[in-house]
Amino acid sequence: MRTARAMSTLLAIVGALTVAAAPASATPDTGSGPGAPQCAGRGTDPAARIRYRAETVIDAPLRTVWRIQTDVARWPTWQSAVTTSKRLDRGPLRPGSSFRWTTPVPETALNPATTLAVTSTVKQVQRQKCVRWTGPAVGKGLRIDQGVHVWEFREVHGRVHVRTEETWRGAQPEQDVAFSTAVLGAGLDAWLKDLKTTAERECGRH
């Protein structure tokens, strides 16, 4: 069933897979090209047919937003769609760091109900500026061969402008590019909303 809840849950799962006066809500951009989020000069997969870009402004210090986002082991405490998350190494995120996280996926036209396990490996990271990771997402009856996810963080007048873009590749999601893109978009929008709510609440600004 293609419900909004299904799309939001599936989206957030795959992920591991604005400025001061702007409204503090995610705004989607399904295009690619100049201006797309990058980290250390690297962006998402230019050949991917499934991609989604979104952004928001968070009324919290940059250090707070960065800490919440990059402490991946604690994702289940603030992301409703993430059931487990485990670092496969120790210390701050750095190139080569990896983590595995899971999320339940409801039945859709492309897959049965399942739990998706996402194994993400950090490729580029610049502290309090950006992070880029890649990896597959696999569940019973569902597989995304390669996801690429880029996050950018920029402090503007005491707030944080967050931009993110993710791409998917794989025969199964590419069976219905429009639906998979909608699912990806719902997931990223939900992720940004949860990040904003958590950071602003922690700072007493929610």
Model description:
By secondary structure, the chain is α+β, with helices and mostly antiparallel strands. 22% of the residues lie in helices and 34% in strands. It contains three helices and seven strands. It has helices at residues 4-14, 62-70, 177-202; strands at 50-58, 84-87, 98-105, 114-126, 130-139, 142-156, 159-169. It has a seven-stranded antiparallel beta sheet. A hairpin with a 2-residue loop joins strand 6 (142-156) and strand 7 (159-169). Helix 1 crosses helix 3 and helix 2 (62-70) packs across helix 3. The radius of gyration is 16 Å and the shape is globular. The N and C termini lie far apart (34 Å).
**What is the makeup of the main sheet?**
7 strands, antiparallel
N-to-C SSE string, H for helix and E for strand = HEHEEEEEEH
DSSP summary: helix tally: 3
End-to-end CA span: 34 Å
General form: globular
Average of the residue pLDDT scores? 87
Helix content: 10-25%
Order of neighbouring strands in the sheet with most strands: 1-7-6-5-4-3-2
Low-confidence stretches: 1-9, 11-31
Rg calculated over all Cα atoms: 16 Å
State the total count of DSSP E strands: 7
Structural class, by secondary structure, is: alpha+beta
Q: Which tags fit this structure?
A:
206 residues; globular; 7 strands; alpha+beta
Quick structural gist:
The chain has three helices and seven strands, in the order H-E-H-E-E-E-E-E-E-H. By secondary structure, the protein is α+β, with helices and mostly antiparallel strands.
